[in-house]
Design goal:
By secondary structure, the chain is α/β, with parallel strands linked by helices. The protein contains 34 helices and nine strands. It is elongated, with a radius of gyration of 36 Å.
Amino acid sequence: MWRFMNNVEPPKKKGKTDKEKAEVRREYDHNKRQRSFQITWLDHPDYCKWLRYDRETKLMFCSVCEKWAKATGAATTLTRCEFVKGCSSLRVESLQKHAKSHTHAKAADAKAASEKQPGTSEAEKLLKQLNKTAINQLSHKFRTCHALAKHARPFSDFVWQCDLDEAKGVDIGNAYRNEVKCREFTDAIAEILRQDLERQVTNAKFISVMCDESTDAAIVEQLILFVRYSNIGKITTKFLSIQPLERATAANCYEEIIAALHEQCGLQEPELWSKLLGFGSDGASVMTGRRSGVGARLKEHQPKIQTVHCIAHRLELAIKQAGQQVPMVGTMTQFLKNIFCFYHNSTLNRGLLRRTAEALGVTRCIPTRTGGTRWIGHTQQALINLQSGYPVIVQHLLEIKDDRQTSNDSKGKSAGFLKLLLSRPFIQFLHFMTDVTSVLGRLSYTFQRADINLSEIPKIVKDTIDSLEKLKTQNGPNVRKLERATSDGCLHGHKIEGTPIDRNVYDRVITSITDAINIRFEIDATQLAAAKVINFKSWPNELDQDFGDSEIAQLVDDFNSVLEEAGADPNKIEMEWTSLKESTYTDYKPVCTASWEALGIKYQADAANLFCMVDLLLTIPAHSVECERGFSHMKRVKTDWRNQLKATALTSTLRILMEGPSVREFDPHPAISHWNSTAGRARRPFQSPYGHRQSWDEPECDLPEESEDDDAMQE
């Protein structure tokens, strides 16, 4: 009533003391409602599809927003969304509020779009609504980007390629004709290839990783990765990624390998370690160190992983080790290097050598380099070129020796070269080493095959050693050819001096090489067992009922736990082996012509458990040669002029270059669909480029309509 009385203040309310306020708070805490999560919420039709409750933390989560909120581009709302980081307010009002939120609605739409059949999503429907002109224009641009990546051309070529197509009368439109869009198109094409890789790796039961390090044109350490797997006897090796390393330590390499398997293949920790069964490298201590190498770190999570030192690198190390034990090999290597530099570093000597070759009618006369890559094939080719150009080189060196205008340095070098080239022991040794390198080169080329596996190594190495041992007792084809050519004491009209070489030199070379190979290629019991049953060339010509039984039993015992995790029944493998062995001898005559891929097509349903173990053995890599080839492609892409190329662009370009289809077989439509569906905003294929802007000084003229710029320029 005090409000109806004028100029009279109402009496003040009696305030509570601090003690009374504390008593009120204690009473409220004692009698307040204890809220808890209601199990019935999980069955509620509005919440059952996305609600998740963690009993340990007593927090509520939205499974849809956790997975799909980032895909919607709502990354800024993730930090504010309680149901992503965990909602502690156990109220039905919180559930109702989140179900009606914009973030949840967009995440639910993204989830629904991903579950739709191809061709039914909104993005694909939108693409279909574009007229044929827009699709054809984008197809031309995507084909151009694919061709540029396939031939290791820079993104800047895309601009003038578009101008060239337009000059030819090709309708490519005015939009998306810059380097930024070329990079986007290239990433979209590479993403389609990556998605295909992810599907294949997901379907594979076992995988192996091969890696190597190298330095690019920007003096940045790069780690290249390949993945290998086998599906019903068919071996496949695919490019995974290439990543820069701040320091090439075992810890950094290990982290990059795991991150690449996460990002490129979609493998998470439990599935990753159950599938990863092989690791191949060049044998560097960073990779194969027993205590803290990359292989040792992988074995901490997967004890059954097979760490393999590349057989091609092992062969090169064995040859290098053997050459250090024979002085004559060192003399030959230094001679090949010096005579190459003599003609390579002097344009005068090279020009005079060509003129001498034209006079003698010889087409191949220039000495080649033995260094560069380490494969023995380069040394073999250098020896062959030296033999074919021998008469030209000797004639030119003789001319230099008697020419007064030649410098004393060149005269001294030519005299030293002639002393060796006209020496019978040295010439015999060159031809002998040509025969030796022919055998070793064949072995090296075999070791570099993409489909080779560890089971083939023992027989190939044994055949090579047998071929080398024969050179101790009988001359090879090049030595026999030399004996026929020097029967009169002359070689190509030039007299050679000296006594024939002691055959003990041949024996020392062969012995040192075979000993080094035997040491480098020691095979453990598991690999020997796999070699006997996996390699059909090791099978007997006629059916033996007991053949391979003990080896199969050993392999089953070694990989029992791994096979069980892959879904196979190890107890049935031995029975399936007996049945498949008889069928193989029946279908293939001789049995060495059989292949696991062909057998898998016919008998996979009857011997599924056995083929699971076969895929495991075939997945283990024998080399890391694919990494060396990858670095060769990297040097084509990342040149001195493109040394600022980012890792993502480099990975995309290399993926298209190595794994993409040919220019004629490329289909741009999947990449166009992906590019269009991942847009942050609507694509505008018909936008116009910048034109003349009307100045404000000409009010009497009508202003032209505002033109829209490319997405890249606005971004």
